[in-house]
Every structure is written in structure tokens, then in C-alpha cells.
Design a protein that fits this description.
28% of the residues lie in helices and 26% in strands. By secondary structure, the chain is an alpha+beta fold.
């Protein structure tokens, strides 16, 4: 047996032939010519009298079969149609059906290499056997020549590249196989996938450095490529609020809008793995990926933009009508952002900033018109006024504040719902700036904070500690990670180790410079305002000069966060169940207008983030996530504070109304889903004159 990753000696020259067994030779050849442009073909009929000696499993036999041979470059394609008698080909059809039957291997000395294989060869590994058994079909993709325009960083004009793509083999799999090419290398040889030189097959239409061109070549023509495919079938009869049908073209348009750099979407990384989006018909589209991407399905659960209202021509007309320059007018400037058109159960009616949003029932909603005629979302800044209006019955549903949760959460007059939030609060540090580029400083700042005090006094115990970026309700969260202990003395020792020691006035300084920075957050959030005050006080006790600032939300995001212009900030992050953290933690996402605005960078973390994006096995996925959780906790780019609990109260007269089989109304109580969503059936809510009575369940 050979050791390590050495290949069988007779595999050194690679595959020269692929043999397919077909049902109808003439029809098969016709398809290969039409679909792939492969030809000419040479036809042969094997059997007596052409073949005088025939055998089947070592015994004399008679048979006939037809062959057709053609070439794709150096690779020969053999199509075989069994006609009569017992052969290994007829046996294969009986056992497996039609398809790929064999590979032909080049050799200089067959007798020598067969003997070497018998002496040194090894059986197929279990992994290779699984990979081969997982192959559903094999197709040959014809060679093609095309031109592609590639954007170039810092340049307005795209690079035009002519690509001379060779014929390729496409394997269709029954299930995801991340190790497919590793296993195939065992069969084909480790050099097989590196022999292809893509840089020799692309030509730049303008001046470009060889290094850049080579990198582009490997991106455009990878030797191997996993291409997961998703095909969506849209529900017929779904309409936008203006009456236009929702089409596959709208989904493609939404994807293209996200990827358009003019729109500055933070979700670009969700769709960067997409290779192509093809509209098959008005209600079907196919998405092909460049690589394995396990969060793929979840990324398409997005709001769909109406193409007819936001395409280039529509935006041009709107720009001209509003007296603006159509050349620089994007959907970010469109009135659509203030008067959206969707396809949900409620139609936008009116929005008055800081007061209300009014929505009307959409009569043509695909699931049936909602029970409510109008939905009013009220914005009431004063907390006491919120509660009083709820008691007065002018508000039906109310998300209570932490200090109200204990009292209202057990009030029998209301329906009560509560759960652990899919979010966390944190203090984030700009790692590009001193002193936050020093891990010891970040750890010291975390150790100086009494987070339990925040939970107790700010959240009224409506929260729990967290240590990392994954949902505590999932397996991905690592319970073994312990939060930094509250230890002001230990924090001072760490700061001293980093060179920060008390000066004459008791303030920490280093080389004559005081330790000072500004902690910011958005205005209008009392919880974050309280955290600012607690953190400022805790750090000042260490001798740190901490200033705080509250900034109006739009200015906070546009001018401070998006432009990376901050020292430290208090924020929160909402999560989904999928553990993909690429946007917020990968080092490539740390530029302006991106979500890794603290500038976190760790090569091991980057590697784990990519593995998480490409992993389909749950057990391995959990292992990667828990290791990433540990790394981020060790690096402390954030001080992770808490996961809040939420409580919502409803008028008891609100129930779900459905229709019984005879058409009469039937009512049932509102219940939450497994994720805690009590508004899942909101379309069917109705408010009765009196609270109904439900029998015990």
C-alpha cells in the first residue's frame, strides 16, 4: 500500500477517456452536438465477425454493441449502446441504469503499471466510495469564449477581459460533499487539479499587471468549483400593493440592487458568493453559487423590491420630475423610501416622523385580507404616556420597558408574552486607535465594569450575561466561555502592565499622555444612556478620563459609525438563528459603511468564519462556532454586556379569528412560536367587544 497522499503509479498521466452507456446512440450523439458543440463523431459496431474472440466474466460469450467516439481537447468521449448478449455494459445498465461507466487512464507501459498497481495499489477509501456513490449525473460543458467586465478598486472604468474557457466536467450530487475534490484526487492524482493553468486562458483588453491578471484568472476559471444551486418557485397570484404581480424578475432586480455599489448596501457580503441569477420564467428563478455557502437559503428571506418602480428608467423619470440630476440619482434618494410599495398584508398610507405610521388593509393579499382594517404604529417618546394610553385602551399592543416587566408581566388583565431576545448589548472599541489596539487595555476596561449591576439596576433583572456573538438559545453559543470577572484591582494591574500608571493628579498616563477617550451612543435610548453613565463612572474610578456623548441616530450612524469616527460606543446587535458572522466579524468587512466597524482582525477567526459559511454538518459547525466564540471573547473587541429579556402585553379582547368548515367564525387564543414570535398570526387578529373565555387546555 502507498503511504500518505501518494497516488497509484499508473495515475500519473491522468484521465484520457470517459465512457458513457446510452440507450440510443444516435440520439445521444445528436444531443452532444446540439448541447455542447462536440464533434465530429466516429461510429463502430462491435461483434462478429469484426471481433472474433469475446468473453464475459472470463467465459466465452457473444454480443454486439455500437460505439461513438469524439474528443474534447485531449479527452476522449466514448458513447456505448449495448445491442445483444451479456456484457459488462449490459450488466451495468441492469444494476445502475445509463450513465458514466468507466475512466480510461493513459499509461506508457500497461503491463508494468498493472503489476505496480497490484503490488503497490490500495483499495478505494471509504471517503472516496461515499463521494462516488453520491454522484447523481455527469455532464460535459462545452468550451466557450466570452468577455467579462470586472470592477477595479479605485478606478472608474472596469477591466475588460476575454476568457477562453475550456470544456469542463459537471458532477451533479445527491447531497453536499465538501470533501469531493479531496477524495477525487485519490483517484485522479494530486496533480490533476493543479495542471490546469487559467492565466493562459484569459486576455486583458487593457494594460494590467501580470500578478493582478493571474489572480483574476484563478477567480474566473477555478480548477474546481462547488456550485450549489437553488431554484425558487414563486407563489402565483401574489401582487404588489399597486396591483402589479410579483415576478421572478423582481427577485433578480432586488439582488442586483443590493450588489450595486451606488446603493451602499451592507448586505453585499450575503450575496457575494452568488455566481449567477437566472430568470427561468415569470415565477421561477435559479441561483447558482461560486462556492459552498450554507446560509444561502436564509439570505433570500428578504423584502422584494418592485422592479417597475425602481429600475433605471423609473429613477430617471423621478429625478427629472423632482428637479435633480438623473446621472447621480439612486434609489437611496427615491421617494420610495418614504412611501414604500410592498406585497404584504398592509398597504402604506402615511408616515409622520416621530408621531405615527398608518397602514391600511391590503384587500388583494394572497393569504386573504387581514381582519384589521387599519394598523397604526404610534411613536410616543414619553414612557409614562405610553403606559397611560395602554391602560386607557387607545393602544392595543405594548412592548413594556424593563422597569414595567415585573408588574405588567403578571397583570391578569392583559395577555402577557415574554422571552429571551435574539440580540445582545455591547461596548465596542475602535481597534484602529490607541489605546484600544492594546488587548490589555480592552480586557481591563471589561474587568472594571460590573455588568451584573447594569442588569440589576438598569434592566431590573430583565436580562442575562453573555460572552459572545451567538444566540444563547442555540448550540453555537459556547457555555464554557466565562465572562470577565468584575475586578477593578486586576484591571489596574493590567493597565500598569500596558504602561498606564497614575500621575501626580491620580489620572492614568503613559509617556506624559493621559488615558482619555470618548464613549458615545445614540440619543433617545434611556438604557444606553444609563450604560454610558455607569461605564464612565467605573472607568473614571481607575483614573481614566472618559467623556460621553449622545448623538441623534442618523448622525450617529452616518457620521460616526459609517465613517469609523469614534473611540468607543454602546450599541446592540440583533441576530438570526443562522451562525454566519461574516459581515460583522470578518476582517474584509472593516471598511467605511461596513459592519465590522470596530476593525476586528484575527486570521484564525477569518478562517473559522469562512468555514462556518461553508459547513453543512451540524456537529462540525458547532465546533467551529464555539472556537470562534472563544477567540472573540479572548480578543475582547467588544465588552459583551447582556442579552435582554422582552415582555409584550396585549388587550385580552384580541384573539385569532378563523373560519370553521361551515364558514362561521372560530376564535382561538394567541400563542407564541418556538422562537417567541407572538405576532406570527397577526393577519388573523381581531379585537372583540368583550374578552372571550377559553376552556382550559
Amino acid at each position: 500500500m502507498s503511504e500518505g497522499n501518494e497516488v497509484l503509479p499508473f495515475m500519473k498521466d491522468g484521465v484520457a477517456q470517459i465512457g458513457f452507456i446510452v440507450k440510443d446512440l444516435d440520439a445521444a450523439v445528436e444531443n452532444w452536438v446540439k448541447m455542447f458543440g462536440i464533434g465530429p463523431w466516429h461510429f463502430y459496431t462491435y461483434g462478429k465477425p469484426l471481433v472474433r474472440t469475446m468473453s464475459y466474466h472470463g467465459k466465452p460469450a457473444e454480443y454486439r454493441m455500437r460505439l461513438a467516439l469524439s474528443n474534447i481537447g485531449p479527452l476522449r468521449i466514448e458513447l456505448i449502446q449495448p445491442l445483444e448478449g451479456d456484457t459488462v455494459y449490459a450488466e451495468f445498465v441492469r444494476d445502475h441504469g445509463y450513465g458514466v461507466h468507466h475512466l480510461g487512464i493513459l499509461t506508457d507501459d500497461m503491463a508494468h503499471d498493472l503489476e505496480a498497481a497490484r503490488r503497490d495499489g490500495r483499495p478505494r477509501s471509504p471517503g472516496l466510495q461515499r463521494s462516488l456513490a453520491n454522484i447523481r449525473a455527469l455532464d460535459l460543458l462545452p468550451a466557450r469564449r466570452y468577455t467579462v467586465a470586472l470592477p477595479r478598486a479605485g478606478r472608474a472604468e472596469a477591466l475588460q477581459v476575454e476568457v477562453d474557457a475550456p470544456a469542463r466536467i459537471r458532477l451533479s450530487l445527491d447531497a453536499v460533499d465538501m470533501d469531493l475534490f479531496v477524495h477525487l484526487a485519490e483517484l485522479l492524482g494530486t496533480d490533476y487539479f493543479s495542471a490546469f493553468r487559467p492565466e493562459q486562458r484569459i486576455t486583458a483588453m487593457s494594460a494590467v499587471e501580470e500578478r493582478e491578471l493571474a489572480a483574476l484568472a484563478y477567480e474566473l476559471l477555478p480548477a474546481t468549483e462547488h456550485n450549489p444551486v437553488i431554484e425558487f418557485r414563486l407563489r402565483p397570484g401574489v401582487r404588489f400593493h399597486d396591483g402589479r404581480p410579483v415576478r421572478a424578475e423582481d427577485v433578480k432586480f432586488t439582488y442586483e440592487a443590493i450588489m450595486d455599489p451606488r446603493n451602499l448596501s451592507p448586505r453585499v457580503s450575503d450575496y457575494e458568493p452568488v455566481k449567477s441569477v437566472e430568470v427561468l420564467d415569470p415565477l421561477r428563478l435559479r441561483i447558482v453559487y461560486k462556492r459552498l455557502y450554507s446560509p444561502a437559503i436564509g439570505t433570500w428571506a428578504m423584502g422584494i423590491l418592485p422592479e417597475h418602480l425602481l429600475n433605471d428608467e423609473a429613477l430617471r423619470r423621478e429625478a427629472i420630475a423632482s428637479g435633480r440630476d438623473p446621472e447621480h440619482f439612486t434609489m437611496r434618494q427615491s421617494d420610495f423610501n418614504r412611501r414604500p410599495v410592498g406585497c404584504g398584508p398592509f398597504v402604506f398610507r402615511e408616515w409622520k416622523s416621530d408621531q405615527f405610521i398608518f397602514l391600511d388593509r391590503f384587500e388583494d393579499y394572497w393569504e386573504g385580507a387581514p381582519n384589521y382594517k387599519r394598523y397604526a404604529y404610534r411613536i410616543i417618546p414619553d414612557l409614562l404616556t405610553q403606559e397611560m394610553e395602554f391602560y386607557a385602551g387607545t393602544i392595543d399592543a405594548y412592548g413594556v420597558q424593563p422597569y414595567q416587566a415585573e408588574r405588567l408581566g403578571r397583570d391578569p388583565r392583559f395577555q402577557n408574552f415574554s422571552g429571551t431576545s435574539f440580540s445582545y448589548a455591547y461596548i465596542g472599541y475602535n481597534l484602529r486607535r490607541p489605546p484600544f489596539n492594546d488587548l490589555r487595555v480592552r480586557r481591563a476596561l471589561s474587568m472594571a465594569l460590573d455588568v451584573d449591576k447594569i442588569i440589576r439596576h438598569v434592566l431590573y433583572d430583565q436580562g442575562e450575561r453573555t460572552t459572545g456573538p451567538f444566540l444563547k438559545q442555540t448550540d453555537f453559543y459556547n457555555p464554557a466561555v466565562i465572562p470577565p470577572a468584575y475586578d477593578p484591582a486586576g484591571a489596574l494591574a493590567l493597565l500598569a502592565e500596558a504602561g498606564w500608571r497614575p500621575g501626580a493628579d491620580g489620572r492614568l498616563e503613559k509617556e506624559g499622555r493621559p488615558l482619555q477617550f470618548t464613549l458615545i451612543s445614540n440619543s433617545g435610548n434611556d438604557t444606553r444612556k444609563s450604560i454610558l453613565a455607569i461605564a464612565q463612572d467605573a472607568w473614571k474610578q481607575l483614573g481614566i478620563d472618559v467623556r460621553t456623548d449622545l448623538v441623534e441616530w442618523s448622525v450617529f450612524i452616518k457620521e460616526r459609525v459609517n465613517k469609523l469616527d469614534f473611540d468607543a460606543l454602546v450599541l446592540g446587535w440583533s441576530m438570526g438563528i443562522d451562525p454566519d458572522l461574516y459581515q460583522i466579524w470578518h476582517s474584509s468587512q472593516s471598511g467605511p459603511h461596513q459592519l465590522n466597524f470596530v476593525g476586528y482582525s484575527n486570521p484564525e477567526a477569518d478562517d473559522l468564519i469562512i468555514k462556518i459559511r461553508q459547513e453543512y454538518d451540524h456537529e462540525r459547525l458547532v465546533g467551529y462556532c464555539r472556537r470562534l466564540h472563544t477567540l472573540i471573547a479572548e480578543d475582547q473587541p467588544y465588552t459583551f454586556l447582556y442579552v435582554p429579556r422582552w415582555t409584550a402585553v396585549l388587550d385580552k379582547r384580541i384573539v385569532i379569528r378563523e373560519s370553521a368548515p361551515d364558514g362561521s367564525p372560530r376564535y382561538r387564543r394567541i400563542t407564541a412560536t418556538k422562537t417567541g414570535n407572538h405576532m406570527f398570526d397577526f393577519n388573523r387578529w381581531v379585537k372583540l367587544a368583550e374578552a372571550p373565555h377559553f376552556s382550559a387546555e
